[in-house]
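Morning F.,

Quick status update on the modeling queue. The single chain you submitted on Monday has been processed. Sequence for confirmation:
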Amino acid sequence: MLRIAIVDDDARFRKQLEEFVSRFFRHETDQFCVRCYGDGVTFLSEYQGGFDIVIIDIMMPLMNGMEVAHKIREQDQNVLVLFITGTADFAIRGYEVSAVDYILKPLSYESGFKYKFGRVVEKANAIKQCRKELVLKDDRGRFIKLDTGELIYVVKDRDNALYHTRQGVFSERIPLFKVEESLRGDASFAVVNSGCLVNMACIDNISGNVVELVNGERLILSRGRKKAFYEKFFDYMGN
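Structure tokens below.
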């Protein structure tokens, strides 16, 4: 199921977009879930990285769509951003926030929305297929399912592995190499040092042996892992 957010201050456009999304999926509600927000401030106050696609109107009061997208990118590099705008001049700045595309107002399902939204859905589904789901048993004996896209990094802590996610930190009594094995099919993850794996989608900057993450934390890249890490990182960025 794709999780979609619509952020638009115009109730009429919000309803129209929601109807277009439903029409695209032929009303099959097991394929999608939509939440609507009337302004960017409210959306950001509730945002926890749980969406696959965010549709944002650029011209909004309080905080315009471009400002909202910049704030999203500070904490989430994975979500796909699709702009709604009345003019293409502003929309071309979308590269600043890695927006997938933009749709011009007035909205038309057949001539505008259907094709562009379809491309975004295609990309979102491809991303989901590349991700894996981890099932871990925490120190209370509870089984927890984690989408690997929610993982920021995993670090060794004695006999445990600490999963740092967008929703918090989870602990499991398991060797780190076992976690690495379970993530081997996910091209997003790379070894930073002997005690740490990082989700490359969550890297904000790399300087020397310091890897800066989107949540403000820093990881140390070991000298022995540097060559392999950079090769994997550039391959990931190229893809």
